[in-house]
Specification:
Blueprint: E1 3-7, H1 14-25, E2 29-31, H2 32-41, H3 45-54, H4 62-75, H5 78-81, E3 83-86, H6 92-104, E4 111-116, H7 119-129, H8 136-160, E5 163-167, H9 172-183
Parallel strand pairs: 1-3, 1-4, 2-3, 4-5
The structure holds BIS(adenosine)-5'-pentaphosphate.
């Protein structure tokens, strides 16, 4: 059983790798971006609010995303089965909120996996994928928001001594192997 956060810039392959690891080791996967996109698609109250931010590549307010994550951790029975969190936390406030909610649920983080990929490759991958929010302008803003808001999160976990940095360049299979090694799977 492992409790882990996947961190990295947009397009680094977090989603791709988190899915592979989750399926191979039967670990519940919580992908915040997917939960938000589903809410937007279904035009729920939450989805309507989230869309305004997502369409600009901005972050959705903390109160909303923290609530989603707490509900998801309870729903997947994280205490018994562990979890992989993809897309959360992305700000220092969210990292602290996560710590608080894990404590309330009598859980703790084992590791934080940071997938490192240079900007040119990120932009190339996202343009090739072509999701609705994958236009050049939105991608550039997502990267800007990422460097401003998420870099402090990486430092925060590094100081705690639980950050594992993995090179995200190369074939998907090779990256998976590096991740398995880093997580001791
Ligand atoms: P989110 O869905 O999390 O988007 P993101 O951060 O932009 O991350 P991506 O899903 O784009 O990247 P990924 O690393 O998962 O890459 P993937 O595996 O797809 O968030 C979307 C929006 O929701 C945000 O902008 C924000 O508004 C909101 N939001 C989300 N979290 C939030 C939070 N915590 N707080 C507030 N708001 C939040 O890979 C990319 C591509 O590369 C794919 O095409 C893939 O096939 C390809 N690829 C993968 N691996 C490789 C490889 N090794 N070699 C070549 N190609 C590869």
């Amino acid at each position: 059983m492992i409790k882990v956060v996947f961190l990295g810039p947009p397009g680094a392959g977090k989603g791709t790798q988190a899915k592979i690891i989750s399926q191979k080791y039967n670990i519940p996967l919580i992908v915040l971006g997917d939960i938000l996109r589903e809410a937007v698609k279904n035009q729920t109250e939450l989805g309507k609010i989230a869309k305004k931010y997502m369409d600009k590549g901005e972050l959705v307010p903390d109160e909303i995303v923290c609530k989603i994550i707490k509900e998801a951790l309870i729903k997947v029975n994280a205490k018994e089965r562990g979890f992989i969190l993809d897309g959360f936390p992305r700000t220092l406030e969210q990292a602290k909120a996560l710590e608080k909610m894990l404590k309330e649920l009598d859980l703790s983080l084992d590791k934080v996996l940071f997938l490192d990929v240079p900007d040119e490759e990120l932009i190339k991958r996202m343009l090739a994928r072509g999701r609705e929010d994958d236009t050049v302008d939105i991608i550039k803003n997502r990267l800007k928001v990422y460097y401003e808001k998420t870099t402090p999160v990486i430092n925060y976990y590094e100081e705690k001594g639980i950050l594992e940095k993995v090179d995200g360049l190369g074939d998907v299979d090779k990256v998976t192997l590096r991740i398995e090694k880093a997580l001791g799977l």
